[in-house]
Design brief:
Blueprint: H1 4-12, E1 15-17, E2 23-25, E3 31-38, E4 44-50, E5 60-66, E6 70-77, E7 82-83, E8 89-90, E9 94-99, E10 103-109, H2 121-131, E11 134-135, E12 140-142
Parallel strand pairs: 1-11, 2-12
Antiparallel strand pairs: 1-3, 3-4, 4-5, 5-6, 6-9, 7-8, 9-10
Length: 147
Amino acid sequence: MFSQLEIDLLLKMSKKLKSNHTILFPYAGEEVKLDVESKTTNDKFIIDINRKGQINISRCTYQTRYQKSIVLLRIDIKGSPHTNPNGDHVPCPHIHMYKEGFESRWAFPLDKEIQVDPNNLTDVLIHFLEYNKISDIPKVEEQLRLF
């Protein structure tokens, strides 16, 4: 269990992607993992881009993990509403943030934290990477599926 101070320091830390190659945005039903590292410490993170929705291709989750399993941030696009520990309901899109004692069980409306059109999934990704204090973000390219 981490203190809120430790979590806040991890979130404010300047970071970079381990690879500066173009990010290939995943097809619906697929996911991509981006390795991230601190610019000043040995801390390592993973950004997940998960397009798990097969029926609703607009469904997407972006997640920041620390030490492989600790979810620091998560954005849900076109998913179900979320119920916070206090009983408040938060519609989608929303952003989950790690809170001491609750882990990532608290969510807030996305537009309260990040101003972006939730219908443009690649823009959401770029804003999410910026929100994570990741600099030198490479081009994000949507893949074309050829049948």
